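Checked the freezer inventory, then went back to the computational side. Two predictions to log before the end of the day. The first one is the construct we discussed on Monday; recording sequence and tokens without edits.
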Amino acid sequence: MITTAETYHVPVLLRESIDGLNILPSGIYVDATFGGGGHSREILKHLGPNGRLYSFDQDADAEKNIVDDDRFTFVRSNFRYIKNWMRYYEVDHIDGLLADLGVSSHHFDDETRGFSFRFDAPLDMRMNKRAGTTAADVLNDYSEEQLADVFYLYGELKQARRIAKSIAKARANKRISTTGDLLMALGIEATAEDNSQLSITNSQLKKDMARLFQALRIEVNHEMQALKEMLYGAQQLLKPGGRLSVITYHSLEDRIVKNMMRAGNAEGKVEQDFFGRSKAPLRTVNNKIIEPSAEEVQRNPRSRSAKLRIAEKTQE
């Protein structure tokens, strides 16, 4: 599969998320989710000769899209380690951070990565292919109870226990290694199409499979914990007046981002000083969530569920 920066991932809410950063020409910025580099390239357009941009991505495929610019530094790492890497680069504070939490189009379209149930392919789902547990490992090695918890917490599937039971029963006879194996374990019939693509005709089944694959992907990549660590690191690194611009795609990550921006913690517990004033380190800039226009959704259907939240660091 030939991948270019343009096809790797179409940037979502590009203008709105960049505007939300309120970029200073000489500022220091972080793109926590480099991917195809669309947001990074746009940030660089707004920076002057003394500005700096650090972009994170743990996926080796993303390195093919690296920007040739003296003001740009690519960090091959999970964004959860943002504080450590900024310390390594001797950066004490940043003026803004952008994160597009959506899975790149490239991951869904590359059948070898196992992110989509459209392909009868190995169940991998690792963002970092160099290490870690695969989705197949989760399906075969987790206890039935652990699987049910993953499906319920990260996929919000009401039938989580029934799904886990079916998987446990099937894997006792044969390891579940591919999408086809998983569908068979769940008793789901899929029509085989060209290029090993699978088609599920029932619309509700499609939605349930999307939730199931989401749950596995989140578990494999420890996405919720990584997001919390990145946001805690970002709010500590931001200068007073610095901006945080984050695009979310599902309720689990959106809830964490909303809580961090309003209360300074993932639980959403607002602390107050002696006079009853909020001690939150951030204040929301857009009280109303920014969503893609109808035109953008038409151009890029994967942007349909995107939500943009923007916050500013309060005075320390």
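The second is the one RB wanted added to the comparison set:
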Amino acid sequence: MAQSYSARSRAIEPFHVMALLARANELQAAGHDVIHLEIGEPDFTTAEPIVQAGQAALAAGHTRYTAARGVPQLREAIAGFYASRYRLNIDPDRILITPGGSGALLLASSLLVDPGKHWLLADPGYPCNRHFLRLVEGAAQLVPVGPETRYQLTPQLVERYWDSDSVGALVASPANPTGTVLHADELAALSQALKARGGHLVVDEIYHGLTYGMDASSVLEVDDEAFVLNSFSKYFGMTGWRLGWLVAPADAVPELEKLAQNLYISAPSMAQHAALACFQPQTLEILEERREEFARRRDYLLPALRELGFRIAVEPEGAFYLYADISAFGGDAYAFCRHFIETEYLAFTPGLDFGRHQAGHHVRFAYTQGLPRLEEAVQRLARGLKTWASR
């Protein structure tokens, strides 16, 4: 029967970590204390002011479809956020509310990529980016990147990998899985390199707000024609509410609105009304406290992993991940992850989920657990490395 399914469906790869997660959950159900460092989701529940706003929205009957671009109040609130945080004057009409950041990626890829065309993407990178391109019959031109470019695309790499089928580039800042950030001058240089070739720049800013010791620059500070993907899932802690947004050039909005009407009608109305509370001072205070907690976790786990022998060549400035080279321990990343689940009940993600470039020698740790659990995780890593070496 599977032979009758579409080629695009068969071409989209599953998350390799899901098999490991299933095993971890089996062990947990059997009574073992599993530490989960594999999931890219904040461990904090949604902040109480947002929850209360969502409950109030349900009580007020905000359960119907909204306009495809989203409720005007939320688009205006996001524009106000750009004004206060980035000193940018973004017309609310350029903002489309989407079902998660994935909805924003679906709109952008549907608008900008014809069959057979491609975007340049950093490898390693978030796997769904290339899968969405396949879904619209385009492709990802994976560009191998490493510590020498802080795992990011550069104008030089654009020049080297650009070809007649290239129509743009998608970059992430902060990036998953590496946590590296593109600074304003780097974003400007990428923008210029792409404009010189008639290409579009699309920037995933989903982890904005989760940066440490600095604030990330938005690409809109240097290129008002770029496309920006963002989400309420990470900094705002609304993963299950499925809400994101896309900022686009004004002339692209009518086409994007048409796509939104057909692809998903509208984002969840209750979530949109709940998200209005994200920008209240009391909510932002809670979110900033959580950012400080993530910084403490990074500042503990990064040196602890290095001391154990993991190679982390570039210090991450954002998100909540550490992308670690395990070459010093030998073996392949999937077997390495499997060993720690089975022997130490410790789950983290193999590099295979993030691309092809040296993927078998890397793993990703998500510091989405409190410090006591991270300390326990480090103890288990130290113990497990000994059994790994003697296997």
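For RB: The CA atoms of residues 94 and 362 lie 39 Å apart. The chain is about 40% helix and 15% strand. Let me know if you want it refolded.
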